[in-house]
Amino acid sequence: MSEQATEQLVLRKTLVVAASPERAFEVFTAGIAGWWPMATHSTGKELVETVVIEPREGGRFYERQKDGTEQDWGIVTAWDPPERFASTWHPGYDAAEGQDLEVRFTPEGDGTRIELVHTGWERRADAEEMLRNYDAGWDIVFGERFAGAFG
Question: Is this prediction's pTM over 0.90?
């Protein structure tokens, strides 16, 4: 895939929340189980008990189902509170086809601008279809559920 085509396969979502970067980072990472729509956006759906991000570079990003089964979603590649969190992303599929997820937290006025960037789509044969699906999915997960965690 050409560099130009790869540049077109970048998914970006941005929002501003009424919270400090420290609080926004904490809600996104440590508080993820409180806002992530597990029943609709996970591999185990209604069987999922929680979503966990281990708070360190090299930590796991995974779901745990009610029977104790765990499904990896990725590995934490950057842990820089309260400015940046990044991980690989491969929930329910081979890590070799995984993407990269980066979330930045920047002060803006009395709140925080949060930018989610999802890249690496060129690793998938169905890149354009998956990107369209995730574009809609991140609107729900990030734009509605995460944003809604701030009232």
Answer: yes
